Amino acid sequence: MKKIMLVGLVALGVSGCQDVKHIAKSLKTSTVGARRTVTLYSHDGAKIREWKGRMKLENVGSTARFIADGKVVHISGTFVVQED
Fold this sequence. Notes:
This protein is an alpha+beta fold. The protein has 1 helix and 6 strands, in the order αββββββ. The chain has 2 domains: 1-32, no CATH class; 33-84.
């Protein structure tokens, strides 16, 4: 048991704090989502709609899917996702 703990501590020390923070943030984002702003633009650059809040985002090719205000939203075209 002590060997397993020692190996775990050594692995944690080798990976560094940044890697641990990245893994923790990735886990949180995949479970509860991250605070994001999603903005959809028209072909001429005018803003069509904007969504803000904690959401999980799935990108599939040139489309995205997320839940906003209890509704599933599918968007395609030009959109920007900004993590707050």
